[in-house]
């Protein structure tokens, strides 16, 4: 959408650290009508209604978080669209994809999708898309959900934690794969083998971690890869926490299986050795594992076996985070903090902002089929982030925007501060201007 001679941009944002698809360099991004009209030299002579010069503050594309549990309607006291999208914008995330469970009803048919959209309409500060769910008994609902616009279908192989979203057995998984492949849809899988899971033998983190061994993830990934190869369905493994999954992912790639995978900020930045006893704000499923395992996940990112880093923001009310790892709700709240948490660790390990943008913007956008998202490129949506990559900040849970003040990052000093977030060329403020995709 190159500008004509008489076209004047609505906005020009300049940065000496613009993170573009071909690398990081000085640039001026011109915006017209909510889209990027051109990417120019930093000192280009451009006239615009508004000019912003960030200097050495980095300019990133808006991040895409394809793994967010908003929980509205039904459990809005856990999290809702207004609070979740406010937190997203504060963290540089301009598009979220909402998971189908923890809301009531879960998004497993078109009526539930319509209810979800009604709940979200008019509340969102960023753009919102939706996953559907694949559960026992809703095989006939999958194609209608796809035609209604969901980005794919989530299933569990082990209990989800909520009774209204039961797992698929292997026959059910195969049937869902065959149906989803028939319209070239996408299946996203919570991959833990239930046969290798157990009730924790005590209330501590060590017992909880032992109850969900890495081998349970590996075995589930192997079975998913086998069935994905047989059926030809596009498949994605959610929130990989165990480095044991890297070998079967690599094997699937060698065999041409359409299988991708993601991991999450907490698996890349936290370690089991550092989880205090009773600190159930660290509890998630699958669990945070050892520091050595964390190093291997970073290797998987560098090698491209893990293509996305997304939050798996799964909040709850504080009363559900009882100081007993066997009984507490499993989910980590980090939607607002993912960029700074990952950048803090990535930069320490020698990665650049281009890597972070690939993992947290371009990768999730491609996964969810969100055209025009995740890149500073002509014709893309003008979703922009001014990111002060060298500025430190200490996390204060009381200053976060998600609904309930629970996060394992409280008190941690992280590097990088989001200064401004623009959605389609307009700075995100208190007005809910997000669209439902």
TrEMBL record:
Cofactor annotation: Zn(2+)
Keywords: Hydrolase, Metal-binding, Zinc
PROSITE patterns reported for this sequence: DIHYDROOROTASE_1
EC numbers on record: 3.5.2.5
Pathway, per record: Nitrogen metabolism; (S)-allantoin degradation; allantoate from (S)-allantoin: step 1/1
EC class: hydrolase
Domain of life: Bacteria
InterPro entries referenced in this protein's UniProt entry, alphabetically: Allantoinase, Amidohydro-rel, DHOase/Allantoinase_Hydrolase, Dihydroorotase_CS, Metal-dep_hydrolase_composite, Metal_Hydrolase
Keyword Transcription regulation: no
Keyword Cell division in record: no
A UniProt-annotated Pfam family: Amidohydro_1
Domain Amidohydrolase-related: 59-428
PANTHER family: ALLANTOINASE (PTHR43668)
Protein family: Belongs to the metallo-dependent hydrolases superfamily. DHOase family. Class I DHOase subfamily. Belongs to the metallo-dependent hydrolases superfamily. Allantoinase family.
Name the UniProt record assigns to this protein: allantoinase
Organism, scientific name: Streptosporangium fragile
Gene name in the database record: allB
């Amino acid at each position: 959408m190159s500008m004509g001679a008489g076209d004047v941009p609505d906005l020009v944002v300049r940065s000496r650290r613009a993170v573009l698809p071909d690398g990081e360099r000085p640039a001026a991004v011109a915006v017209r009508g909510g889209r990027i009209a051109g990417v120019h030299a930093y000192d280009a002579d451009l006239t615009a209604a508004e000019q912003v010069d960030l200097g050495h503050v980095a300019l990133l594309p808006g991040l895409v978080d394809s793994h967010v549990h908003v929980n509205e309607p039904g459990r809005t006291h856990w999290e809702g669209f207004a609070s979740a999208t406010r937190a997203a914008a504060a963290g540089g995330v301009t598009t979220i994809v909402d998971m189908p469970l923890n809301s009531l009803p879960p998004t497993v048919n078109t009526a539930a999708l319509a209810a979800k959209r009604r709940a979200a309409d008019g509340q969102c500060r960023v753009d919102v898309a939706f996953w559907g769910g694949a559960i026992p008994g809703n095989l006939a609902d999958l194609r209608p959900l796809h035609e209604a616009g969901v980005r794919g279908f989530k299933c569990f192989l082990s209990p989800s934690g909520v009774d209204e979203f039961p797992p698929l057995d292997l026959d059910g998984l195969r049937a869902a794969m065959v149906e989803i492949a028939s319209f070239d849809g996408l299946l996203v899988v919570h991959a833990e083998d239930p046969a290798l899971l157990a009730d924790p033998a005590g209330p501590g983190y060590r017992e909880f971690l032992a109850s969900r061994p890495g081998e349970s993830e590996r075995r589930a990934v192997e079975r998913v890869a086998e069935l994905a190869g047989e059926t030809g369905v596009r498949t994605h493994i959610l929130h990989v926490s165990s480095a044991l999954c890297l070998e079967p992912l690599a094997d699937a790639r060698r065999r041409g299986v359409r299988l991708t995978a993601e991991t999450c900020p907490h698996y890349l930045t936290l370690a089991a050795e550092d989880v205090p006893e009773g600190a159930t704000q660290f509890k998630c499923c699958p669990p945070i594992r050892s520091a050595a395992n964390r190093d291997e996940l970073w290797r998987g990112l560098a090698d491209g076996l893990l293509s996305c880093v997304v939050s798996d923001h799964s909040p709850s009310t504080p009363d559900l985070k009882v100081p007993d790892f066997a009984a507490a709700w499993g989910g980590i709240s980090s939607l607002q903090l993912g960029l700074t948490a990952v950048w803090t660790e990535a930069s320490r390990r020698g990665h650049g902002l281009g890597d972070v943008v690939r993992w947290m913007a371009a990768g999730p956008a491609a996964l969810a089929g969100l055209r025009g998202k995740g890149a500073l490129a002509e014709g893309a949506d003008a979703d922009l982030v001014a990111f002060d990559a060298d500025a430190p900040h200490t996390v204060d849970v009381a200053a976060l925007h998600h609904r309930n003040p629970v996060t394992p990052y409280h008190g941690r000093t992280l590097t990088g501060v989001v200064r401004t977030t623009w959605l389609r060329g307009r700075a995100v403020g208190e007005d809910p201007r997000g669209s439902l995709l």
